């Protein structure tokens, strides 16, 4: 059953999948300008890779929700770094970058890794040097907003953060701390859910011929330990594409989600004939079994144009919004799915 509201389509989780129509653009979160950019790129003759790149780049430029692109999610030192990937479902080629510094167009660098090197994944300073060698401009990724976020965190004694502490006293300074497994529950209490601290644009594009590409872009977890790379640039975790099946893209707590390769699992479920909504639910349920309080969501689409989504239900988070654009829509449409 599909209930149509003004500018919103709610696809309830009891439904196997939403309408099977190609071409299709689907992405995590209500980042509609990114959806529109991907569609216009495809509609004007661009490839599915072009559409994914341009769509994610739009989010990088707009600093979607402060969690994609420059000027957001400063790490423990106050620096913003970027992660991104892109995958070609025809060839199974992947390009990815992690802990990218000084370069604003992370998804563009990821595609350059795929097309202009024999590697798959470059990280850190070396990834930035590669990007500069390939003609990308070096720029400061910090903004007044990111500096304010960092200053506020310091002024609040750097809590919460991603280190386990010897002392549970939240007034202690920001570390580093010696590991203490007995304080894992305290750490969980400290790290209250902040969906804006984990947003990633994950996008799937499928053209009329059924060719699939997928990609991601993010500035990672806020106040992360320097050098941390999440799930977003990891093939099979952040996103996965296979033109014989379909694609999937994830968002959420990457440190947990990468352990389960949810995007790969969802695509393999669809390969076995499972509908996209159920495939997404299976991927989320697998993680939920071990980490019931994790924050995460996934979108899935198969090569007929059917699509679905799933997320983990938390007290602060009961529905997940995502965007869809296909030839039956007059523009990018926001949809939501009830979390499980």
TrEMBL record:
Q: Which GO terms describe its cellular component?
A: lysosome
Name the Gene Ontology molecular function terms of this record.
N4-(beta-N-acetylglucosaminyl)-L-asparaginase activity; peptidase activity
> Keywords on this record?
Autocatalytic cleavage, Hydrolase, Protease, Signal
Binding positions for substrate per the UniProt entry: 228-231, 251-254
Residues the record marks as active site: 200 (nucleophile)
Cite the InterPro entries for this sequence.
Answer: Ntn_hydrolases_N, Peptidase_T2
> Could you say which residues are annotated as the site Cleavage?
199-200
Q: Which PANTHER family match?
A: L-ASPARAGINASE, N(4)-(BETA-N-ACETYLGLUCOSAMINYL)-L-ASPARAGINASE
What catalytic reaction does the record list? Answer: N(4)-(beta-N-acetyl-D-glucosaminyl)-L-asparagine + H2O = N-acetyl-beta-D-glucosaminylamine + L-aspartate + H(+)
Q: What does this protein do?
A: Cleaves the GlcNAc-Asn bond which joins oligosaccharides to the peptide of asparagine-linked glycoproteins.
Instruction: Write the protein's name.
Output: N(4)-(Beta-N-acetylglucosaminyl)-L-asparaginase
This protein's source sits in the domain of life called Eukaryota
* This enzyme's EC code(s): 3.5.1.26
CDD domains, sorted? Glycosylasparaginase (cd04513)
GO annotation, biological process = proteolysis
Q: Where does the signal sequence lie?
A: 1-20
What family classification does the UniProt entry report for this protein?
Answer: Belongs to the Ntn-hydrolase family.
